[in-house]
Amino acid sequence: MTETRDVAVVGGGAAGLSAALVLSRARRTVTVVDAGEPRNAPAAHMHNYLGRDGTPPGEFLAIGRKEAESYGARIVDARVTGIERNGADGAFRLLLDDGAELWARRIILATGLRDELADIPGLREGWGDYVLHCPYCHGYEVRDRPIGVLGTGPHAVRLALMLKKWSADLVYFPHGQEVTGEDRLRLEARGVQVVEGGIRGLVAGGAGLTGVELDSGAVVPREAVFAPSTMRPSGELLDGLGCARDADGSAATDPMGRTSVPGVWAAGVVVDPMAQVIAAAAMGSRAASAVDHDLIEEEVEQAVSEYRR
């Protein structure tokens, strides 16, 4: 068997790198395996992270990698394709897509999620630029501009009601979703215009979004749109290990990130899809301290057993 690391962190985003930083500073041997597919890669800037507000996501991750590596963490650019457990000593064997393998005493899954977008032409192309999903992340950047909210998710009406304080020029496009009488009353009272009809696509050019084209051919001028996505936590490794999941597919954990499988923790948006970057980083830090305490307990028990012998 090759060297067994104390902890393997799967995923090199905010949660994973934060966990690696805490653990490497605690003098644990840590390896981060990162597939290089951060969810916020299309965004130009990251916001609401105290001390790093406005930092490009790639730059933020590069800083995090450098910090973790400065304390001895290893970072491997690869994808984990499977995780197995050794019945003899309980260590985990991680299989990587480059044919390599890694052994670890504990696992932290920080594998993130993927956004599934509605089948509307132009939505994917503008994602993270003029197609947005989080008002707290991007609302300020499009303040006082003509904004549209697309009915592409179950919380679209609520999103439209929220965004009114960022822009007085707000249009809600149900796109076939039913608008109840109560919702219509709330939208009208809030000053949100409702434009019926299906959406044919987004109209954009070199300067960005110019409008939302309806099935009728009419184009409603807009400079940005918010489109709720379906958030799918990355669950392949969770399922492979037998970790319980919540109703929305997220990893089911205790407050410290411990999953239903001994030796396995989870952190970040794979646990809470609504977590912003700063919250994901905090979850990684919390899970790391829990893992360290768990390792200490195991080491103390071993030391006592050896001492008695």
From TrEMBL:
Keywords: Flavoprotein, Oxidoreductase. Residues 6-284 form the FAD/NAD(P)-binding domain. It holds the Pfam family Pyr_redox_2. It catalyses: [thioredoxin]-dithiol + NADP(+) = [thioredoxin]-disulfide + NADPH + H(+). It comes from the Bacteria. InterPro entries: FAD/NAD-bd_sf (IPR036188), FAD/NAD-binding_dom (IPR023753), Ferredoxin-NADP_redctase_2 (IPR050097). This is NAD(P)/FAD-dependent oxidoreductase. It comes from Nocardiopsis endophytica.
